[in-house]
Amino acid sequence: MFTSALLAFSLLLGQLPPVPGKEPHPLVIGHRGASGQLPEHTLEAYERAIEQGADYIEPDLVVTKDGHLVARHENEIGGTTDVAIRFPKRERTQLIDGQEMKGFFTEDFTLEELRSLRARQRLSFRSQAYNGKYAIPTFEEVLALVERKNRETGRQIGLYIETKHPTHFQKIGLPIEPRLLAALKEHQLDKAGAPVYIQSFEVSNLQWLKRHSELRLIQLIEDVGQPADQIGTKLSYASMITPAGLQQVATYAVGIGPYKRLIVPEHDGRLQAPTHLIENAHAAGLLVHPWTFRTDKEYLAEDYEGNPEEEYLQFFALGVDGVFSDFPEDAFNARERWYRQEIPGR
Q1: What CATH number does residue 44 fall under?
Q2: How far apart are CA 130 and CA 121, in angstroms?
Q3: In 119-150, which positions are buried (b, 16+ CB within 10 angstroms) versus exposed (e)?
Q4: Is 276 among the catalytic positions?
Q5: Domain that holds residue 322
Q6: Which DSSP letter does residue 45 get?
Q7: Of 4, 111, 212, 329, which has the maximum CB count within 10 A?
Q8: Is 73 a catalytic residue?
Q9: Within a domain: residue 312?
Q10: Is residue 242 included in any domain, yes or no?
Q11: Catalytic residue among 41, 73, 168, 289
Q12: The pTM is what?
């Protein structure tokens, strides 16, 4: 059991978990669905995440050649589908966000062609048993799944949508944002208060969405570099998490989605004392939803001694408002424990 001084320090900085209201707190967000168990961004992975207690599921959206929104982590789909076997001649190299990339891209395929593909597990150390079984879902299918699960469970399951490479898709004449808002409007999910978040690592598309919608927006933040649409400017992810930078983010977003090591740093394989990012973000009026929590031993820090619940408990104690998890069941169980306050040393 991880009961080091690091966790104790986290608990001192944290606060007692609030009583859950209409929306649980902290949120459990099924990162690409239950992607630790099933191929990511499939209807089956999303449904598994819901069954495991996720409050929100996270579809990443890209666009097909004929203008349809589909759920993939990237527009490059060589690593998550059997496209190289079915369409070997479609491989090419192109410039995306200032970087040269070789692969198979959704914008080169019609929806009908993409629907002939089957998903596969991206990471070799996770189960490959479900490779070839599941299709690439459209965003409409994801919306229909959530509506069905809401009816079946009596819960309010939300959508935590990421727009992938929005500037790239804008440049090639396939903008994501208008298509996204139109689809949400058809399902009465386009108003303030809807169980929807829209997130992006870029800035200008979130600012556009701020002007054209009432939905909650989240600025994603990497630990290095700068947003792809800000290349050539002075704006970096590092500057965005300063107190002044967070105040600027708050002019268009309701929260940030930072890489979790910006909250609890790691050095030489060991965790360090937490930063003040959560405190500073809350002072700016921003929610904090860090990513990504994973149970795999390949990802879990040694300090947690093989127990993923301890990582969640540490971040809950620090005051996060939600977590992105590949294993929603573990996040849900840790939150239940947090609510019961069955925490060593408290």
Answers
A1: 3.20.20.190
A2: 8
A3: bbbbbeebeeebeeebbbbbbebbbebbeebe
A4: no
A5: 5-74+137-340
A6: H
A7: 329
A8: yes
A9: yes
A10: yes
A11: 73
A12: 0.93
